[in-house]
Design brief:
Elements (H helix, E strand, L loop, with lengths): L1 H12 L13 E6 L3 H12 L5 E4 L11 E4 L6 E4 L4 E3 L10 H8 L4 E3 L6 E5 L2 E2 L3 H21 L9 H7 L7 H11 L11 H12 L10 E4 L7 H10 L5 E2 L4 E7 L2 E6 L4 E9 L3 H5 L4 E3 L4 H9 L1 E3 L1 E7 L10 E5 L8 E4 L11 E7 H8 L3 H15 L10 E3 L13 E3 L6 H8 L6 E3 L12 H20 L22
Parallel strand pairs: 1-2, 1-13, 2-10, 7-17, 11-14, 13-22
Antiparallel strand pairs: 3-4, 5-9, 6-9, 7-8, 11-12, 12-13, 15-21, 16-19, 16-20, 17-18, 18-19
Bound molecules: flavin-adenine dinucleotide and 2-acetamido-2-deoxy-beta-D-glucopyranose (5 copies).
Length: 496
């Protein structure tokens, strides 16, 4: 039965006849990157009895953008999260569970609830000013935005930006307070409404947070585990991974791909070959040529990679001798410049890190990129100036510690996570996920249509890419490709 079928498939593909499970390559599968997608891809292969794989990771540990740091003056440190910090969407009743939530429970991760709208105070350049009413209006406007955005899909209207959407529903912020409350309801995208797709951001919100739309729940759990949020993925890896299946401190420079497999060259010149490779490198890494493909990726693939956006989300940590700020989880600061140190979170609270003296601000998008270019001392003094404005009756003391990660400049990341722009259409995303030949597969957070940007997006994509590779391995290379579109037509051509 199988013989003629295989032969037919072989003829149809014009491929070589060897139904190889055993080849001259070093490994069956190379997994490029050891973040959530890489670890879950590895677990998926192992569960299907493919053990001859190698995770190749540039840093000295697994976890990727789940990255923590011991922060603070000697003798008074806490482990803070430089990257992902929240489990976004958990589970409601017996509904679908966020797989990151499931891992957190399995590995006993310590988490705390954060109350975005119930535990918040507001400030502007003159000190404390109550504009919580404006915040409620912004929350309503955002809900309306996702509803109206959803209504546009069935009518096949072309996508526009969230800014267009806000304007069409009449939400037109003018004052610093209106701007900062708007920022606070969509900072998740780490870019401005001008830079974000109206439709995709609406479904992204729904699929994670809206139970009626298949989402997990609208809860956000903050990891406060002193082993780091990364503990959940490192503990998961420890259950199945043998040390010989991971190569740390190994930076990939080139990925050569052909019908015979994939050969990876490391920064120190070492070459490692595999029958298959799954790259999980961030969209930013793919965009910046930190890794060179040989031959160059086809144009349809390059266009997809360069058309999605890698956004940046930056947390700026300060530690003081003692807490002098608000007792809520969050505070907003309305500057004349939208996005200038707008959100503050105090960690010196009973349910977080009591006595830690730590507070942090968050900036995103273009503002993140701008501050990365400046020296630490300059950014620290800007932060102290803002705190001085928020607390006019307090002489702001000198911090005992200060740190912020530069995700955008880091050649292993080139940003924090992907964001979907209005000019990016579904076929672009189809092409972003698609394999190139049967040997080279693409995974990672950005490849998730429903959950791009999130940890759970990386998780599902790691599983999915590995499952495709499993079917390739069992079919000796003659497996199903993911769809791709050679050229993406304009459904409403410009008439000039
Ligand atoms: C600041 C910040 C805040 C975030 N907050 C949240 C949050 O609260 N909740 C949430 O769900 N998500 C959040 N995210 C997003 C989440 O962290 C990511 O979606 C997820 O971790 C991506 O996993 P990944 O496996 O796709 O990619 P990665 O974690 O980036 O894994 C890819 C790996 O490849 C390695 N690598 C890159 N280039 C090379 C190379 N040339 N050679 C060898 N190795 C290389 C990297 O070191 C990395 O370990 C946040 C991200 C950031 C940065
Ligand atoms: C990786 O490099 C770090 C720092 O250079 C070193 O401390 C560590 O031992 C290395 N780890 C491995 C597994 O090679
Ligand atoms: C949201 O939509 C509702 C119902 O159409 C409307 O009453 C409300 O004013 C809108 N709110 C905002 C802020 O747009
Ligand atoms: C998001 O969910 C709302 C209902 O909560 C729905 O009206 C809207 O169509 C959805 N949007 C998208 C893009 O799926
Ligand atoms: C190159 O780096 C890899 C990964 O760290 C290491 O295993 C290998 O021994 C190195 N090779 C040389 C020649 O230094
Ligand atoms: C600061 O001090 C002045 C004068 O004592 C007082 O009127 C004002 O309310 C104080 N502001 C704050 C935020 O405590």
């Amino acid at each position: 039965m199988l013989g003629p079928l295989l032969l037919l498939a072989t003829l149809a593909l014009g491929a070589s006849v060897s139904p190889d499970t055993h080849t001259k390559n070093d490994k069956t599968v190379l997994i490029l990157g050891g973040g959530v997608a890489g670890v879950i891809a590895a677990r998926t292969l192992a569960s299907k009895n493919i053990k001859d794989f190698l995770i190749i990771e540039g840093r000295d540990e697994l976890g990727g953008r789940m990255r923590s740091m011991e922060f603070g003056v000697q003798g008074k440190t806490s482990v803070v999260e430089l990257g992902a910090n929240w489990i976004q969407g958990t589970q409601e009743g017996n509904g679908p569970a966020n797989p990151i939530y499931a891992l957190a429970k399995k590995h006993g991760l310590k988490t705390a609830e954060t109350d975005f709208y119930g535990s918040i105070v507001t400030y502007d350049e003159t000190g404390p000013v109550d504009y919580l009413d404006a915040l409620n209006t912004a929350v309503d406007a955002y809900t309306n935005l996702t509803v109206v955005g959803g209504g546009r899909v069935p009518t096949k209207q072309v996508d526009t930006t969230c800014r267009t959407g806000y304007s069409l529903i009449g939400a037109k912020p003018k004052t610093p307070a209106d701007m900062v409350v708007e920022y606070y309801v969509d900072w998740e995208y780490a870019q401005t409404p001008e830079q974000t797709s109206w439709i995709a951001s609406s479904w992204a919100n729904n699929f994670t947070f809206d139970v009626d739309q298949g989402g997990f729940s609208d809860d956000n759990l903050l990891s406060v585990d002193q082993r780091g949020f990364k503990h959940l993925i490192q503990a998961e890896a420890a259950e199945f991974l043998h040390p010989s299946q991971v190569l740390l401190n190994a930076t990939v420079r080139t990925i050569a791909h052909s019908a015979d497999g994939v050969v990876v060259t490391l920064a120190n010149g070492t070459r490692i070959s595999g029958d298959y490779a799954i790259t999980t490198f961030s969209l930013g890494v793919l965009q910046h040529d930190d890794v060179v493909f040989e031959p160059a990726l086809p144009l349809w693939k390059q266009e997809a990679i360069q058309s999605m956006t890698m956004a940046t989300y930056t947390k700026l940590f300060l530690q003081f001798e003692e807490k002098f700020w608000f007792d809520t989880d969050f505070a907003l600061y309305a500057d004349k410049v939208r996005g200038r140190y707008p959100v503050w979170q105090g960690l010196d609270l009973d349910h977080f890190f009591p006595g830690s003296g730590i507070i942090f601000a968050t900036v995103t998008g273009d503002y993140s990129e701008a501050i990365e270019a400046l020296p630490d001392a300059e950014i620290q003094s800007q932060l102290l100036e803002v705190l001085g404005a928020m607390f006019p009756n307090i002489t702001i003391p000198t911090p005992t510690a200060f740190f912020f990660p530069r995700w955008f400049s880091d050649p292993l990341y080139r940003g924090s996570y992907s964001n979907w722009p209005a000019s990016f259409v579904s076929p672009h995303h189809t092409n972003l996920r698609a394999n190139v030949g049967h040997r080279l597969w693409f995974s990672g957070e950005a490849m998730s249509q429903k959950y791009f940007g999130f940890l759970h997006g990386a998780y599902f994509e790691g599983m999915d890419a590995a499952e495709h590779v499993v079917s390739c391995v069992s079919a000796g290379g003659k497996c199903q490709s993911l769809p791709f579109v050679e050229s993406i037509p304009n459904s409403s051509p410009y008439v000039i």
